[in-house]
Amino acid sequence: MKQASSRNGRGHRAYRRQQAALKARVKRLNLPCYWCGQPIDTDLPGTERMSFTADHPDALANGGRLVGQQLQPMHRSCNSRKGNREDIDLEGWAAS
What we know:
This is HNH endonuclease. The chain is α+β, with helices and mostly antiparallel strands. Helices cover about 25% and strands about 10% of the residues. Strands 1-2 form a two-stranded antiparallel sheet.
């Protein structure tokens, strides 16, 4: 039996709503990338490396849930570099 992808399975719509709300908040408050601290242009197409993505602190690959996590704004390239690591120390992120 083939396992359903988390991208189209249970909770996907809730995740998309949470992601859209975060993107709107980033745009409204000009929040920086959680990983590098640089501004995020929320108007860039999703294929651009510096476009907005919503990061799961507990990576899905490590057993994290699709919904129910506090998503973090990141550039697509920063999210890719972070991968499924959890050991990041970004204490000053909220202060920037």
